[in-house]
Amino acid sequence: MKERRCLYCYQPLPDGVIDFHPACTKKFFGTETAPTLDYDNEQMKELAKEIVIKSVAVTECNQNYH
After folding, report:
1. Using an 8 Å Cβ cutoff, are 57 and 49 in contact?
2. Average of pLDDT values for 39-56?
3. What span, in angstroms and rounded, lies between the C-alpha atoms of 65 and 17?
4. Dihedrals φ, ψ of 7, to 5°?
5. Which run of H or of E encompasses 25?
6. Backbone phi and psi for residue 32, each to the nearest 5 degrees, phi listed first
7. Which DSSP string do the residues of 39-53 spell out, in sequence order?
8. What is the per-residue pLDDT for 60?
9. Of 4, 31, 3, 10, whose CA–CA distance to 23 is shortest?
10. Model confidence band, residue 14 (pLDDT cutoffs 50, 70, 90)
11. Which residues pair with 12 in a beta bridge?
12. How far is the C-alpha of 4 from the C-alpha of 19, rounded, in Å?
């Protein structure tokens, strides 16, 4: 099994700790607990598509002003 590592410092995580060491959570987010994203993979894909479409639209719009 692959060793789980902290997403902030990339050091190994002890059993029962998920994603971040408590100290790393505090450093990175400024809170005791990391925020959660209440989206499933399909919703994340849709959000990503929307962001790409919006960024392309803005880029094309800016090119017309040159």
Report:
1. no
2. 91
3. 51
4. -75, -5
5. helix 22-29
6. -75, -25
7. --HHHHHHHHHHHHH
8. 57
9. 31
10. very high
11. 5
12. 8
Q: How many C-beta atoms surround the C-beta of residue 20 within 10 A? A: 19
Question: Does residue 5 sit in helix, strand or coil?
Answer: strand
Tell me which of 11 and 60 has the higher pLDDT. Answer: 11
CB distance 3 to 12 below 8 Å: yes
Threshold 0.70, pTM exceeds? no
> In whole angstroms, what is the distance from residue 59 CA to residue 66 CA?
12
**59 or 52, greater pLDDT:** 52
Q: How far apart are CA 12 and CA 5, in angstroms?
A: 4
Please state, in angstroms and rounded to a whole number, the distance separating the CA atoms of residues 65 and 53: 19
